Amino acid sequence: MLRSPGALSWYLDGARVHVSLAGDPVLAVVVGRDRDEWLAFSNEAERLVAEELPHDDAATLTRVPWFEPLDAAVGPRAGALTEADVALELRAARASLLPTELDRYRALCRESAEVLTDVAGSVSPTDSEQHAAALLAAGLVDRGIDPLVVLVSGRQRVAHRHPLPTAAALGRRAMLVVCGRRSGLIANVTRWVSFGAVPEGEADADRRILDVEAAFFAATVPGAALAEAWRSGVAAYGAAGFAADEWRNHHQGGAAGYVGRDPRGTADVADRVHEGQAFAWNPSAPGAKVEDTVVVRSDAAVEVLTRDERWPTVDVAGVARPVVWER
Questions:
Q1: Which part of the chain is the Peptidase M24 domain (predicted)?
Q2: What domains sit in the chain, N to C, each tagged with a CATH number?
Q3: What is the pLDDT of residues 184-203, one digit of tens each?
Q4: At how many degrees (to 10) do helices 129-142 and 99-120 cross?
Q5: How many CB atoms lie within 10 A of CB 138?
Q6: Would you give the distance in Å from CA 253 to the centre of its chain?
Q7: How far is residue 42's CA from residue 139's CA, in Å, rounded to a whole number?
Q8: Which helix (H) or strand (E) holds 185?
Q9: Concatenated DSSP letters of 43-80
């Protein structure tokens, strides 16, 4: 029985299965060997059939009263496996993106990056973090992208790794972060803008965090253990001149796709890296962070999906990586 937004959107070819971004899906799917059963709340069923669900003659639709839990409709089939029972297998099944999925992902990621460029090029030091966040959210929604995460930090708040926007002014330097979802897929991207030249101390940290990311990329190759790729990345902090345990201060990202991190990288995950799988590593240090959504190719190189040609970049180990935009 599929209940999570990521599993449902993947299985149903990008269908939107939510009403509230913070709420549970309004649909569940019982996957059978011969046919599937879609369980939908009665007040949502017609819209889902008309606008979201793929045409499938081998599926049946059960309408569940809005005041009852979706699970109640399963009845005697309540012994069906849950997602938690087969979490590793489900992640492996959706890891390698199909050509049509990759086409959707490229478009989503490109447009998300374009929104960040547009906003970074339009805000001023006196604008509030909330104003910048409003522009980011509006730009995403205008493109049919759900703004799942919008983070903004001005100069005074760059120490926070997850800076929910406040009324504080951006000041001399700002970080902009979005996680945007469309057709079930999620783009993750971070950008920095500086109003004036970046001081040498900050520029040095900005350069070195790219070396840490390069270590993550180099280890993220088809067939590798995700845990080993993660270990290679976190080991690079010390080599890049940061505290060797800096990785403990924030998560480092991981696989991406239909879930923001699918899964988040740690030393304990059992997943392996697949050809055609998306990743969003995000190494960070005080005042420095880098994050893009990439896909692993068969030749072990990464293709950066969240790329806008207007954003300034620097070559790091053969990959164009974003730098702080000095305006």
A1: 104-297
A2: 5-80 (no CATH), 99-326 (3.90.230.10)
A3: 999 999 999 999 999 999 99
A4: 140
A5: 13
A6: 9
A7: 33
A8: strand 185-194
A9: TTHHHIIIIISPP-TTEEEEEE-TTS-GGGGGGGGTTS
